[in-house]
Amino acid sequence: MAGRNAADRNAADRNALRLAAALVLIGFLVAVVAQRFQTMIDGSVSSVNNHPAEFIAIASGDHWTAIALAQFLATALITAGLLVVSSALNLTTGIPNAINRLGAWTAVASLALNGVMYAVAGVALKQAVDAWVQAPVADQTARFASAESLRWLQWGVSSYDAVLFGIALLLIGIAIFWTGRVSRLVGVLIGLEGIATVVEGWYAGVVGLALSGPNAVAYDVSSALLFLWAVWLLVVALRMKRVAPAASA
Predict the structure, then answer these.
(1) DSSP helix/strand/coil, 188
(2) Tens digit of each residue's pLDDT (9 = 90 or more) over 113-158
(3) Count of domains observed in the chain
(4) Could you tell me if 162 and 135 are in contact, meaning their C-beta atoms sit under 8 angstroms apart?
């Protein structure tokens, strides 16, 4: 009896892991679809940080705000999945628990920043570029400067958001690898995605949001790793044996 109870306490929650994998995969799918629609609007100019061309494309994109909302919802689903993974480890004491909790708190902070970033990009920037396009010639310089300032604000918030989320991934990945309560390969993949996401965040702050060069490589690597660890987590969770309930005393 005592051995079984100890095993129960040291086991990850397979149902929670299945839920986590489902949330991450759904969020990934929503992000891919939203990115596809965004590319249809500004794909020809967003890779070079050409602000006048970008702003014209955004102003003509009737669904720009809805796309930004969909991207935020995708991030929220992925973050929720990561938090469920963190909770499913059932860690209560020791250094791994502290690392895991810090990772969860960092993920929550990154989601808050992500909401600010998409509010700036999807609402504030959209209104600013619309006002620039519609302004009289005499007012266009000031309107453009206002829109460009919001674009730079988006760069900064996006950079810090990605760095925080990358740190969260790395910490939770370390906790998984340390304890072995879930396949250590899952922890490795999550940790590697965290490193790639931190790199992506750094380049977002230095060169902007253009998906070209090292920034594009970091984005593609982090996206691929996200998909891989979510699929493998689902496989692991489906193969986990159900922990038998303890008999009553």
Answers:
(1) helix
(2) 999 999 999 999 999 999 999 988 889 899 999 999 999 999 999 9
(3) 1
(4) no
Cα angle 117, 118, 120 (rounded to 5 degrees) comes to 70
Cα–Cα dist 100/44, whole Å? 41
Query: Cα torsion for 229, 157, 26, 41, to the nearest 10°?
Result: -120
φ and ψ of 89, to 5 deg: -70, -20
Supply the DSSP symbol for 247.
P
pTM of the model: 0.88
The phi and psi torsions of 25 (rounded to 5 degrees) equal -65, -40
Cα separations in angstroms, 29 against 25, 124, 185, 244: 6, 26, 22, 34
Spatial CA neighbour of 147 closest among 163, 162, 159, 135: 135
